[in-house]
Write a structure and sequence with these properties.
The complex is a heterotetramer, with two copies of chain A (75 residues), one copy of chain B (269 residues) and one copy of chain C (754 residues).
Chain A lengths: L1 E9 L6 H12 L5 E14 L6 H10 L5 E5 L2
Chain B lengths: L11 E6 L6 H9 L4 E6 H5 L10 E4 L13 H20 L4 E4 L1 H9 L13 E4 L7 E9 L15 E8 L3 E4 L2 H9 L5 E4 L19 E5 L5 E4 L26 H14 L1
Parallel strand pairs in B: 1-2, 1-3, 3-4, 4-11
Antiparallel strand pairs in B: 5-8, 6-7, 6-9, 9-10, 10-11
Chain C lengths: L16 H10 L6 H14 L5 H10 L2 H4 L4 H7 L8 E4 L3 E4 L4 E9 L1 H6 L1 H17 L4 E11 L10 H19 L3 E8 L8 E11 L14 E6 L9 H4 L19 H16 L5 E4 L4 H12 L3 E5 L12 H6 L5 E6 L4 H10 L4 E8 L3 E6 L2 E7 H4 L27 H9 L8 H4 L10 E3 L2 E2 L6 E2 L3 E3 L8 E7 L2 H6 L1 H18 L3 E10 L6 H21 L3 E7 L3 E2 L2 E2 L3 E10 L16 E5 L10 H5 L12 H16 L5 E4 L4 H11 L4 E5 L7 H6 L6 E5 L4 H8 L3 E8 L2 E6 L2 E7 H8 L5
Parallel strand pairs in C: 4-5, 9-12, 19-20, 26-29
Antiparallel strand pairs in C: 1-2, 2-3, 3-6, 4-6, 7-10, 7-11, 8-10, 9-11, 12-13, 14-17, 15-16, 17-18, 18-23, 19-23, 21-22, 24-27, 24-28, 25-27, 26-28, 29-30
Helix pairs in contact in C: 7-8, 8-10, 10-13, 18-19, 18-21, 21-24, 22-25
Classes of the chains: A alpha+beta (75), B alpha/beta (269), C alpha+beta (754).
Bound molecules: adenosine-5'-diphosphate and magnesium ion.
Chain lengths: 75, 269, 754, 75
């Protein structure tokens, strides 16, 4: 059994409007020390067999869009 | 307080808004066409105290995507309200004023703990999770009314089946634990349920989101706070019901929620 | 100059044409040799070299996307000027009158190139952009529409069609739903034509009180310019240049990709409309292609003014932006408001109430020069007229005289089987998988939405109807027409057919057609055969609209939808709006009652070119059905009269798949079947059932209304059968043609959704 | 400067509908060895000052609903 954790975020050059909204909300809640928020999606994927290399396939084929996203597979 | 509002005094309604709430227009018009004097109130105005909640007779949380529905539907609006206005809101609820939220408004009420509030302490007892279908569902659904003491349902009859539009992707009502669910049922708080055209509770697609016990709308024990996933304010007139060309001319299904609240306020406040 | 952020001088005055071309390429300007030489001689006269800000500004203004340099001459000849007296105003969108008080503002636009690269963001910002165009006229948006053309094959080096489709639909959903404007009409077409050149045509309709219509022209000095909404960033630089060239394989420049932020747009719409309602806005315009550069230039030029801009006042996302980047950035969600000095504080106050970023960035001045300052220095000083008048091209064109090969198919052996397979054809079956993800009831004014009928088994409608004012009975009907299959075979007839379909759809809900907006999609205009097709298409549009006397009030041209050897057909998507006098009289296609009569208004044809029937037989060729605008007008307006007399119970136009599909769709939402006899129609059964005659409808008429109906329609109406329970039965005289259960029709049509 | 990574997932007892549809999609793509997918949201939050403890506040006040979510702050 293999357990993967894949995190998909926006590239730095792409505006993350969810991040901006959360930043604004946290500041309104009084956390003025928050200076930046970026968001992403995380997928915990369990494989019955096989290896971590498939994770890259998952990114390419389904989870991420290479034009706007970065996809990180955790060790 | 018992003598009611004289007819020559306008009933004041606050329709609460912030960036991303977007049903405020139809909510405003529904109240206006019900003979009240509604006002669209930006959350900011309450936060900076240029407007006060206590000046209103009815409070309405419209649908939409407050704060973009980022994080979780209703979460950002609820967090802002919680940090500045929770006490005022609780007071309003406790003196029995009508408070209603539809769609995103329902999500906000749940996130604030104003509903279901089985425990009576405004704890967070439930959530509206993503639809089981994992997609946005925009269509008309059948709903069975079990009116109980819910003031917004005065003008309906018990057991009636009505049709209202839905448009949401996070509408699956789930409770914290089985005690909460039991409390809801035993108190008759589950006043509106997804059903088939005969009023029978059925699974998908009748239940569009996978809500526990087919719960589509929920009133608090006292009957003055209603949260509902469908949109009464979008079918104030029958010509906006999706099948109106097959039916006879009559009042819109949604208008009765508003007339109920108005008659209640006229009598009680 | 040591400051890396500062503006540079570009020494073009001394350059040869080779060097000029190099500058154009290096700076990503997309300008031709002629255009570069024209700039050179301008600066020779000015006695100096341009700055990089100036070069970039000119390149934006002169791009195909902003200037229509290849199409303007032809648009003037064929499209502008039709039905002029019906046009209330023109600008970013066009307007026609709904009633004495109110006007309808509408437009359809393409977002093809961005969507091909990044479907989610491309489609989302398409919706955002078209909303801004409507808002620019001072109008409240009431509906968003989207007509999508997807490929069917994967092309090496491009994303898969499935990826594109999911991305586009999600983008429209997430943007449209979040801004709270219902997405109520559109279409989805699948064809190999569109791999990999996917097309995303998005429309928007709004309403405005006539005394609140704003233009974008500034014709007085001292008018203050307020930039409101999103901040300006590096995103979306050179978007217009991308849309003005053929698409290449591989990665595009990341700075052209944007996702849009509906959550800024939503309050921005409220705030701008509030300021306009209070009479505080002098003129306004949205920032789209070309950013500030295009908008400021056009607002000043159209009113004969010059002006001054302080780039330091522009709210930025990143502090390190160069002045030319600020000037041409296409960051989303921005509007430029022109306001009289005494109203500046009030407008800024309204923006603040809605939590919108806004800043005063400059003002208009006498004299036709624009000057821009950055950190105390002048970085641009140009005549507005020079900037906004590019070279217009009359590109060479050739018209191919395609020989039409008529073709007589064998009669199908099993009509039921053919019908069922057509019903689940990708281009026919329900679009609920997409459309049910779009909120089409928000604002509580949707009288007829994309689907109608019994709750839980709704069928398709032909047009949507919105009630913009809850106190009135008036409705605005919204629909589209387009047929790339016809246009591929015959651009002229294809153009006419698009108009015909638009009108048919409006009539079908009981609306009088008021105006069109045209989104013209084509390949590379530098190729003579494409220009030839383009002109034929325009002639088709002209001949129909002129005869109907219905104006094209707005539109857009998208060229260069071409990659390698693949290109799209040259065809229009038309957005049409109409007026429903009394919404309670509007009509839906679902049959209402068993035992009514069924009429066909129109007659089948033997021209099957481009039809669904031929496509199912995998046949090319054949003549495309002809639309005669005079016939369309007679039948259509007579039907409106009959609807006004309440003599029509259900109405659906004859479109893809002929009357076989039309009648089937009328059974879907009603659970009522039909019995039809083809003999009065005269042709062979397959022609009668599957041909796609233009200007035709199927009508359900109750017994008690029949006399009235026939009195109005006369010989245009042919009795072909009656409504019955359970099944759709077709015979030809004594011969049985087919008999299909309506539940089977329903399940085939809903394939992939239920 | 403090950088937080906060992950919000659904509790095991709550059906994760996005997870289920990703699972279905991966299997349709031919990855039959995928047996489970769970999804979550991740927030990368930068604080100008202060400490990691605030992260718990962020969870409670905004990022998670305790009825359905779990909130994990990475070290
Ligand atoms: N992409 C879309 N966006 C919004 N509405 C759509 C879209 N595609 C189809 N619709 C709507 O769904 C209904 C049925 O569509 P369709 O079957 O394509 O109709 P038609 O056969 O008249 O072209 C119409 O009301 C149409 O406007
Ligand atoms: Mg149609």
């Amino acid at each position: 059994m293999v357990e993967l954790r894949i995190t998909v975020t926006f590239k730095k050059t792409v505006e993350d409007s969810e991040g901006s909204s959360v930043l604004k909300a946290l500041r309104l809640l009084g956390y003025e020390n928050v200076t930046d928020v970026r968001t992403g999606k995380v997928y915990f994927i369990t494989l019955s067999k096989g290896n971590r290399k498939t994770a890259k396939d998952f990114c390419e084929k389904l989870l991420a869009n290479p034009v706007i996203n970065e996809c990180v597979v955790d060790e | 307080m018992e003598e009611g509002i004289p007819m020559n005094r306008q009933i004041k309604v606050a329709v609460l808004t912030m960036e991303g709430t977007n049903n405020e227009v139809e909510a405003y018009l529904s109240f206006k066409h019900s003979g009240t004097s509604p006002e669209i109130v930006h959350l900011k105005k309450l936060e900076n105290k240029s407007k006060r909640l206590e000046d209103y007779d009815i409070l309405f949380f419209p649908g939409g995507f407050s704060g973009g529905d980022y994080v979780r539907a209703g979460a950002i609006m609820a967090a802002r309200l919680r940090s500045t206005l929770l006490k005022d809101l609780e007071k309003l609820v406790e003196i029995g004023k009508p408070v209603m939220g539809s769609c995103n408004g329902f999500q906000v009420l749940v996130e604030l703990g104003l509903i279901p509030n089985v425990g009576g302490e405004y704890g967070i007892e439930a959530a509206l999770a993503p639809n089981i279908s994992n997609r946005f569902e925009a269509r008309t659904v059948y709903l069975k009314i079990n009116k109980g003491n819910c003031l917004f349902l005065r003008d309906f009859s018990d057991g009636e089946v009505v049709k209202l539009p839905i448009a949401h992707s996070e509408g699956r009502f789930v409770t914290r634990d089985s005690d909460i669910l039991k409390g809801i049922i035993s108190n008759g708080m589950n006043v509106i349920s997804y059903s088939d055209e005969m009023g029978r509770l059925q699974g998908y697609p009748w239940n569009p989101n996978g809500s526990e016990q087919n719960i589509a709308g929920l009133c608090n024990k006292e009957g003055n706070v209603l949260g509902i996933m469908p949109h009464p304010e979008r079918v104030f007139y029958y010509v906006t019901e999706s099948d109106w060309t097959r039916t006879e001319k009559r009042e819109g299904m949604g208008s009765r929620f508003f007339s109920s609240a108005v008659s209640f306020v006229r009598e009680k406040f | 100059m040591s400051d890396p952020n500062f503006s540079k001088e570009i020494p073009i005055v001394t350059m040869s044409s080779t060097q000029l071309n190099e500058v154009s390429r290096e700076m990503n300007l997309g300008l031709s040799t002629d255009e570069m030489s024209r700039i050179k001689s301008y600066f020779e006269k000015e006695g100096r070299n341009p700055t990089d800000v100036e070069m970039q500004a000119i390149a934006q203004a002169w791009s195909e996307h902003c200037s229509y340099k290849s199409s303007k001459i032809h648009l003037k000849k064929y499209i502008f000027g039709i039905g002029k007296e019906k046009v209330v105003a023109e600008g970013d969108a066009g307007l026609v009158a709904l009633d004495d008080e109110t006007a309808i503002s509408f437009k359809i636009e393409s977002h093809n190139h961005p969507s091909a690269i990044e479907p989610y963001g491309g489609a989302a910002t398409g919706v955002g952009g078209i909303l801004r165009d409507i808002l620019s006229m001072g109008a409240q948006p009431i509906a968003v529409t989207d007509v999508l053309y997807f490929g069917t094959k994967r092309i090496e080096g491009f994303p898969s069609p499935r990826f594109i489709e999911t991305g586009v639909i999600s983008g429209i959903r997430d943007y449209g739903n979040r801004v709270g404007i219902p997405t109520v009409s559109g279409g989805i077409v699948y064809s190999d034509f569109f791999s990999p050149n996917v097309l995303v045509n998005v429309g928007c309709v709004g309403v405005v009180r006539k005394d609140r219509i704003r233009s974008s022209a500034i014709s007085e000095p001292g008018i203050q310019l307020i930039l409101a909404g999103g901040k300006t960033g590096r995103d979306g630089i050179h978007g217009v240049n991308m849309a003005s060239a053929e698409m290449k394989k591989g990665k595009e420049d990341i700075t052209t990709v944007q996702l849009g932020s509906p959550i800024i747009k939503e309050p921005l719409i409220h705030a701008v409309l509030e300021a306009n309602e209070r009479g505080l806005i002098y003129a306004l315009k949205d920032l789209g292609g070309g950013g500030l550069s295009s908008v400021v230039g056009e607002m000043l030029e159209s009113g004969g003014m010059g002006g001054i801009i302080h780039l330091d006042s522009v709210p930025l996302k990143e502090s390190s932006m160069k002045p030319w980047e600020i000037w041409i950035s296409e960051s989303q969600e921005r509007m430029l408001l022109a306001v009289r000095r005494e109203n500046v504080d009030k407008v800024l106050g309204i923006m603040d109430d809605w939590d919108i970023t806004a800043a005063l960035i400059g003002e208009s001045q006498n004299g036709k020069r624009l000057q821009i300052f950055f950190r105390g220095k002048k970085v641009l000083d140009l005549g507005t007229e020079f900037m906004t008048s590019p070279i217009l091209y009359e590109r060479p064109y050739s018209k191919l005289d395609k020989k039409v090969v008529q073709f007589l198919p064998k009669q199908p052996s099993d009509f039921s089987k053919l019908l069922l397979s057509m019903l689940s054809d990708k281009n026919i079956r329900t679009r609920e998988y997409a459309v049910r993800q779009y909120d089409h009831t928000v604002r509580g004014s949707t009288v007829i939405g994309p689907f109608s009928g019994i709750v839980g088994r709704e069928g398709p409608t032909d047009a949507s109807v919105i009630r913009p004012d809850w106190s009135k009975k008036t409705g605005v009907a919204i629909t589209h027409g387009s047929n790339p299959f016809y246009s591929h075979a015959d651009p002229y007839r294809g153009g006419m057919a698009a108009v015909d379909e638009t009108v048919r759809n409006l009539i079908s809900v009981g609306a009088e057609p008021l105006g069109f907006s045209d989104c013209l999609n084509a390949g590379n205009p530098e190729k003579p055969e494409i220009m030839g097709e383009f002109i034929s298409m325009l002639q088709g549009l002209h001949d129909s609209a002129f005869s109907l006397n219905i104006p094209f009030v707005s539109g857009n041209v998208s060229f260069y939808n071409e990659t390698g050897r693949k290109r799209i057909p040259t065809f229009p998507t038309i957005l049409g709006v109409g007026k429903v006098k009394d919404i309670e009289k509007s009509i839906t296609p679902d049959f209402k009652k068993v035992g009514s009569s069924i009429y066909m208004v129109g007659v089948p044809t033997t021209d099957l070119g481009g039809s669904l029937y031929f496509r199912h037989l995998k046949r090319d060729g054949g003549r495309v059905p002809y639309s005669d605008p005079r016939v369309l007008k007679r039948r259509g307006w007579n039907l409106l009269e009959a609807i006004g007399e309440r003599a029509v119970s259900a109405l659906h136009d004859v479109s893809d798949g002929g009357i076989a599909i039309s009648v089937s769709e009328m059974t879907v939402g009603s659970s009522i079947g039909a019995s039809i006899d083809l003999s009065p129609l005269g042709l062979r059964a397959d022609f009668a059932l599957f041909s796609e005659p233009q200007s035709s409808w199927i009508v359900e008429v109750r017994k008690e209304s029949e006399e009235k109906f026939l009195e109005i329609l006369g010989e245009d109406a042919v009795l072909i059968g009656y409504t019955q329970e359970n099944s759709f039965t077709v015979k030809a005289g004594e011969g049985r043609v087919m008999d299909v259960g309506i539940d089977k029709i329903l399940s085939r049509w809903k394939k992939g959704y239920q």
